[in-house]
């Protein structure tokens, strides 16, 4: 991980002004979470304030010390206890079947071995436990796909390995999780933003 990824990217993400529509999608993704929740790619805490009252604790998996530090004030104000539970979504330092739910928002795009990370999600979920996800990824529109493939090399360099072309729903299914529901649509309306904002909002569970 280079200096840009370590020092600059977390600050860009933390300081970015998120559109209200994205905030509403985050809230819908968090709805229904309960008990012990593992959040992949916690960052500086974009989902703080959106966890339901039924969540007893959030175990935050976050590789960036900078991102974690930027979220200190928000964590201190959080009604839900948040503890740092590891640095790598590909190798969760958590016992088998120990989580009631896993939350991933705009995270699976960046993890290098996303298939391994999803296998780890399946491992740590209790039977019946759910993965709640909101991710951007591969568009079904051929014209947008072409731009996604052209832009992806730059995107990966600037935003710490972020991919634009991952088929999120298929990756979740391939992990052995049972896909319950998924909505697919462009999260924002400007056509120029389409390569970055094709969103997958869904849930899957461990059988």
UniProtKB/TrEMBL annotation:
Keywords noted in UniProt: Methyltransferase, Transferase
Record domain Methyltransferase type: where: 39-132
Molecular function, one GO term: methyltransferase activity
Annotated Gene3D superfamilies: Vaccinia Virus protein VP39
UniProt name for this protein: Class I SAM-dependent methyltransferase
Keyword Glycosyltransferase belongs to the record: no
Source species, domain of life: Bacteria
GO BP annotations listed: methylation
Organism of provenance: Terrabacter aeriphilus
